Amino acid sequence: MTAFNDLPDAPRAERRPTTDTRHGVTRTDDYAWLRTANWQEMFKRPETLEPEIRQHLEAENAYQRAALADTTVLRDQLFKEMKARIKEDDSSVPSPDGPFAYGTEFVTGGEQPRYFREARDGSGREIILDGDAEAAGRDYFRLAGSSHSPDHSRTIWGYDDKGSEFYTVKVRDLASGQDLEDIVENTGGGGTWCADGSGFFYTRLDENHRPSKIFFHRLGTSVTEDRLIYEETDTGFFMGVGGSRLDDFIFIDIHDHETSEFRLLPASNPFAEPKLVAPRETGIEYDLTEGGDVFFILTNADGAEDFKIVEAPVDQPERANWRDVVAHKPGRLILAHMAFSRFLVWLERENSLPRIIVRDRETSEEHAIAFDEEAYSLGLQGSLEYDTDVIRFSYSSMTTPSQLYDYDMRTRERTLLKTQEVPSGHNPDDYVTRRVMAPASDGETVPVSLIYHKNTPLDGSAPCLLYGYGSYGITIPASFNTNCLSLVDRGFVYAIAHIRGGKDKGFGWYDKGRREHKLNTFTDFIAAADHLVAEGFTSHSKIVAQGGSAGGMLMGAVVNMAPEKFGGIIAAVPFVDVLNTMLDDTLPLTPPEWPEWGNPIASKDAYDLIASYAPYENVTATTYPPIFAIAGLTDPRVTYWEPAKWVARIRETMTGGGPILFKTNMDAGHAGASGRFQRLEEIAHEYAFALKVVGKAA
To answer: Which sequence ranges are marked TM in the entry (predicted)?
Structure first.
């Protein structure tokens, strides 16, 4: 394997012990000083970062550059390969809505999307918003999308130019192409039009980056005159605003990770008082879609762990009037639903595979849209229009490029609209995709999706990139990924471990991977690694584990628990300082995260539980494999100081191994670089590390 030779001395963060006592337990944190005191201001003005912290982060960046300097040519080669698999002048298939169809496109060499619309009478295409033009001269730029008004005369668009996810919202007149003087700052991104297009609803973020207020802005008036529609005073809840497909209702969605509440007001009357649908009840979730004179509601009420669909009259949507339409079926998880004038549609997952179900609203006859591959991904896009028989969905597998279909729900005819192009070429027959089941220690089996080249030997000699997430019920789909082919073509087995904490095998799979069951997430991932070795796909020294955000926490936990079972670790924006973050209720996501992890402020049991696995708290005096940690300076979700502290503690504590590398993107936040090719450069950086670790960097 390729060694990391002749490295300069790694940066050493000064130890400045601070103590904290909770529930009678005193902990010492040597690196708490890396948390900038002015983080609220720094997210908006990165230049205000404390100089000594900036100096340390820059030293870390210099060290990782030196450690990976011999991969410069490889990184460039990887970047060129991945870029060559992207159709540079790609365009989406426009989605019909009234007299127009709306879509996005890229131009050759462009980093940002352009939003366009086409007249359905065939009279031509016009550019609504040019992302490259708007991004010019900015180090970071991310669009929040474009939302056209009901009369198609204007569009709301938003952008973040710091990476901190404080979005500025503007309104563009589509006839002139000019922005109006209506500018709203510090929003969650985007807005929802009222019925007559005279104004829009938006979410404003407070100084702690929490979406605490919904406002209505009347075009042509000062933002200071905006009407407060609703304020959420419980810091434990997220909040957003959206509209119905019929443009009849405005939905205010209030939720945490296990409880939800909706409030409604007519889109035609932005001065109405929001009407409560069903009051929040801990553990009860529900989601609304409009179906003419009824709402169809997806919910886990009444013990429906894997969710059911009910309906209620639009004028009496209270829970007392909910009537079952699609009954709960244990093991069949309903993920999303949509309603149209003649059909009800939902996306479900059973036996770890997704399918789309279409029900005729008049006859109640149902049929399914499904595929035969061993592992695949389905996406339900639906339609912007309500009175239609045609919906849109996407399909892909780990070997099959994405395909976009229009589907006539009445005739059941599929029309292939687009197949993802791979300009440099792709032959699915060159690859094998499989799903294997890894036995967990408690008798469960963990699905693992695999792709590898047909010529890759399965005798334990192949390297493997093993990806995992395992939190918040998020399922990682077995979808087509052109980037990973750069590893697969070099002999890697690319694997996704569908561990507990996601909803891959139903809601219970999620429930058994959170709070008091969180350890299952980590042991499942280790079990997946063990199974891949036992079945000859790879060997432990050649497994590079990868995860980001909560998946980065997974990386920190498994490398503490079983460092000998991984040849390397890639931890992107890793949530590794879990205990300290969950003890700090001023941070943006802390109160809303308590249902997922537990509240260590209020509960000693939760404190002890989190302390038992939090990666930062459990760094041990052992040999660690090479680790590559990545952060974004203005990331409000996983703050830069979490991996900065974690890396410092590992270096101070480890007895051998490494190196421990840490890169901070000084111009980005949680999602990394904002441009599509800039993002490929970051992936190339991570892949070069993986190749170097397993001796394939030459």
So the answer is: none
Residues 194 and 338 reside in one and the same domain = no
Selecting among 149, 352, 383, 549, the annotated active-site residue is 549
Amino acid at 78: L
Q: Are residues 542 and 402 both part of a single domain?
A: no
Tell me the CA end-to-end span of the chain in Å, nearest whole number: 10
Task: Give pLDDT tens digits for 75-92.
Answer: 999 999 999 999 999 999
The Cα 165–Cα 146 span in angstroms is 16
Burial 126-162 (b: 16+ CB within 10 A, else e): eebbbbbebbeeeebbbbbbbbbbbeeebbbbbbbbb
DSSP-derived 3-state class of residue 430: helix
- Which tokens is 365 given? 């006859």
- In this structure, the answer to whether residues 391 and 436 fall within a common structural domain is no
Q: Which long-range contacts (CB under 8 A, 24 or more apart) does 100-109 make?
A: 100/148, 100/152, 102/128, 102/146, 102/148, 102/384, 106/676, 107/132
CA 392-395-398 angle, 5° bins: 160
- Among 399, 421, 443, where does a domain finish? 421
Q: Sort residue 307 into left (φ over 0), alpha (ψ -120 to 50) or beta.
A: left
- Is 471 a known active-site residue? no
Q: How far is CA 116 from CA 136, 242, 394, 405, 676, in A?
A: 19, 22, 21, 20, 18
Q: Which two tokens stand for residue 158?
A: 């938003």
CA 431 to mean position of chain CA atoms = 27
**Which of 626, 514, 617 has its CA nearest to residue 566?**
626
Residue partners of 429: CB distance under 8 A and separation at least 6:
454
Domains: count for the chain: 3
Q: Is 549 a catalytic residue?
A: yes
Q: Are residues 322 and 190 in the same domain?
A: no
Question: What is the distance between the alpha carbons of residues 431 and 694, in angstroms, rounded to a whole number?
Answer: 21
Ranges assigned E (strand) in 267-402: 275-276, 286-290, 294-299, 308-313, 323-326, 332-339, 343-350, 353-360, 366-369, 377-382, 390-396
Would 13 be classed as within a structural domain? no
CB burial of residue 554 (10 Å; 0-12, 13-18, 19+): buried
Using 50, 70 and 90 to split pLDDT, how confident is the model at 681? very high
Distance of CA 430 to the CA centre of its chain: 30
Q: Is 635 a catalytic residue?
A: yes
Residues 498 and 567 in one domain: yes
- Together in a domain, 522 and 575: yes
Please write the tens of the pLDDT for every residue from 394-429. Answer: 999 999 999 999 999 999 999 999 999 999 999 999
Structural domain span for residue 577: 23-84+431-693
Asked whether the beta carbons of 529 and 485 are under 8 A apart, the reply is no
Looking at the domain assignment, is residue 15 inside a domain?
no
Q: 398 and 437: one domain?
A: no
Q: Provide the CB-side half-sphere exposure for 484 (13 A, CA).
A: 23
- Spatial separation of the C-alpha atoms in residues 560 and 523, rounded to whole Å: 12
Annotated catalytic residue, options 182, 670, 674, 685 = 670
Please report whether residue 76 resides in a domain.
yes
Q: Helix, strand, or coil here: 393?
A: strand
Q: Which of 635, 667, 674, 685 is catalytic?
A: 635
> Each residue of 309-324: pLDDT tens digit?
999 999 999 999 999 9
In a domain, 631, yes or no: yes
Do residue 610 and residue 560 come from a single domain? yes
Of 374, 403, 421, at which residue does a domain stop? Answer: 421
CA–chain centroid gap for 464, Å, is 23
DSSP per-residue codes, 464-510: EEEEE---TB--------TTTHHHHTTTPEEEEE--BTB-TT-HHHH
